[in-house]
Amino acid sequence: VELLSSPQTTLTREGEMASSSDWGIGAIRDGFETVNGYFDSFLELLGGKNGVCQYRCRYGKAPLPRPDYKPQEPNGCSSYFLGLKLDLGIPAMTKCCNQLDICYDTCGANKYRCDAKFRWCLHSICSDLKRSLGFVSRVEACESVADTVFNAVWTLGCRPFMNSQRSACTCSEEERDEL
Questions:
Q1: Mind listing the GO biological process terms from this record (predicted)?
Q2: Residues spanned by the domain of 31
Q3: How many domains, the chain?
Q4: Stated pTM of the model
């Protein structure tokens, strides 16, 4: 016999509190998945599991390109973290940032290969500047900016990479799990 009742708890005649929330297998699994999701997000901020930032499907299978996926337009050298445009002072670097966006948005891409191509692109601009103008001080400034931008992407780019991969890819076994 219930004496006191609320949506969360029930007080029985014997004075015991009984919870009316569902503690079935499904609720426990959902709780573990939620905690795992928070843990994965935290790891993305730190650069990935074991320092490796790579998108993987739950059961080790390779992700597949999402059939209906339309990549966003590359947005140049905008900050993924603050939503602000970065003025690098070198407009040609926008091309490199756009290439990085396209690489990150390609399902199955390897972040470190994308980042290496990005670094090469940035430094090739500085090399072109040196060949065409010959200004050593400008080239040094260009290389300094290139290194700073590359290091920021290398260090802080795991979350944007993973978000792009989640949008561009699908994992067939996970789709079945949700049914």
A1: arachidonate secretion; cholesterol homeostasis; lipid catabolic process; phospholipid metabolic process; triglyceride homeostasis
A2: 1-43
A3: 2
A4: 0.65
